Amino acid sequence: MSTANEFLWDFHGPLLLQRLGETLYMVGTTLLIGGVLGLLLGLSLYTTRRGGLLANRAVFTVLNLAVNIVRPIPFIILLVAIKPLTLLLAGSTIGSTSMIVPLSIAATFGFSRIVEQNLVSIDPGVIEAARATGASRWRIVATLLVPEALGPLILGFTFLVVALVDMSAVAGIVAGGGLGDFALQYGYKRWNSTVTWVTVGVIIVIVQIAQAGGNRLSRRVLRR
Amino acid sequence: MPTEFRDAHHIIEFRAVRKIFSAPSGDIVAVDGIDLRIRQGEIFGVIGYSGAGKSTVVRLINGLELATSGSIVVDGVDITTLTERQREIKRRDIGMIFQQFNLFTSRTVAGNVAFPLKVAGWKRADRDRRVAELLDFVGLLDRAHSYPDQLSGGQKQRVGIARALATSPKILLADEATSALDPETTWDVLKLLRKVNRELGVTIVVITHELSVIRAIGDRVAVLEDGKVAEIGTVFDIFTAPRAGVTRRFVDTVLHDRPNPADLERIRGAFPGRIVTAHIADGHRLGSVLGSAGARGVTFEIVYGGIGSLQNRSFGSLTLELTGPDDGVDALIAELRQVTDIVEVGT
Description:
The structure holds 2 protein chains of 2 kinds. By secondary structure, chain A is mainly α.
């Protein structure tokens, strides 16, 4: 094994590819879970707030408090703190699959605020118009809110993608696999800064692709 | 036209309705004991300055706001006694259009019009047919697949009207529906509303702060001030004989046939004779009285005024300067009083 400060294609190449796969797996699965749960939590925050469609002070207070408690916890601390839960849900506390538990929690709570903020931007008059047609509150929540805020929601979701690529890299510290793990193991710990920078480059490319895709999609939805 | 409505069925009836909003700074009485009866098939105007309670009144009709006390009977049903679900079903019989149109930006024109039909559980094929029919009615069949942000203000309101009419409601609530439109487009939309009223027999409640809107299409009007009905009557009566101060102020915004104090001062300076203002309406034979002025040694000059038409009747006023011997002028004024109302406004 080389200790030179260079990226060896034969050795590092396949490893990088494998770790890239792990990162995409972690981020992708988390996006699915955190995206859905975050959307639901965001919708709940928005609709139960004062003057909301399903205004409910008790529910809003509890949800709002929960989000305010979980969100500021630094991810690395959340990761360690919820290990028992991770073990219970994923059956292990190492490997990429185990990372999905803390990532999904962070994604759900983080995304919920983004969703809430984007829903607040919906013109209340549009909701009133829907109610005037005889639509029930639940129908409006289920069929109107998300389409009306879809453009900004896609941008918010893109923000989540980028944040998750970042958070998933922390997995390296707890043997969670992925690109962060790779950069740490083969770059930092072996004084091989070339490997570190190549990994950073790959992450930048992922982020660029995600952001460009999100921008394009939201523009299409907003017809601009 | 009170006679032709005398025995008409009341489709909306407010009985001692109060609406109080609780706010951190204290309770706000938006509607303070209103009694109103709106007849089936009429275009009923509700006018008031902002804060008069007119937006609340219109939302009490379709239950978007709930009355604090009193009852509101809409087409035979007291909506204050209904459950939320029953109110939702009732709303299918009450369309509503808005100042800012409030179209669903994520849906096409056709999608907007189809929304109430989906809510009412219509089948796809029936929906499509009805949407085409409605878009044809409002003249936007060719824009069915456009999105609201691709339309002009007037087109947006037409979509709003089509959406409001989708489930064939008996009542249409228009909340400042033309206030965001330019004068020409306003007129187009008002013509469309009149067509909705005449051809489909829909009772329309028009909320506005512009008397010109009610003048154009209204049958009767209620003037609101501080959550109370200051005055109610036919549009003709409100214009020709306003009783409440607030009504007078509204009428003055659209009628300029009576001189204001500044005009009067100027007129008095320019014309030394006696100044009188005569009310003009159908059947008043002012001219024939004035024709006899010469015989009394009196001459007259028309110094201010205007005559227009309202609900197919003439009305307006003329301000005259009368010059001549005092007894002759007095006699002429007495004779004028026999045919119309005369206000002496000085010399």
